[in-house]
Design brief:
Helix content is about 75%, strand content about 0%. The model has no long low-confidence stretch (mean pLDDT about 80). The protein starts with 10 loop residues before the first helix and ends with a helix. α1 runs antiparallel to α2. The chain has a domain of about 80 residues. The radius of gyration is 36 Å and the shape is rod-shaped.
Length: about 120
């Protein structure tokens, strides 16, 4: 019997997949928006420094978010493939007696069968 839950039922796995997809989608929206704004401003000849230079930084941020999302999805796929190769753990049968119980049982048996010597002073 497999004691580990299936990967499809793992909440952290699905958080990784959802977070990766959200990061990629947000990065794509930022990248397309800023590049579109820069293109129209540069083509029209009305571009300002804010549109050009700040737009480049926002476009780089969008590209980074897309890359982070792609890395997250690759990690999720790697986890899925490694999980397919994992062998299930075998269940170990519980031990009926512990080691301490055996020692106490043997000690009580030994003391019950051994006669205590009688001291001369205590016998009177």
């Amino acid at each position: 019997m497999n004691t580990r839950p299936r990967l499809t039922r793992s909440i952290p796995f699905w958080l990784l997949v959802a977070g990766s997809l959200a990061s990629s989608a947000a990065g794509a929206v930022i990248l397309i928006d800023k590049l579109g704004t820069m293109e129209t401003a540069l083509t029209a000849g009305t571009a300002t420094g804010v549109e050009v230079y700040v737009g480049q930084i926002w476009a780089v941020l969008g590209a980074i978010l897309i890359g982070v999302g792609a890395i997250g999805l690759l990690l999720a796929f790697t986890l899925g493939s490694l999980r397919a190769f994992a062998t299930p753990r075998e269940q170990v049968a519980p031990v009926a007696e512990s080691f301490d119980d055996e020692i106490e049982t043997e000690a009580s048996d030994a003391s019950a069968t051994t006669e205590q010597p009688v001291l001369d002073g205590a016998a009177r």
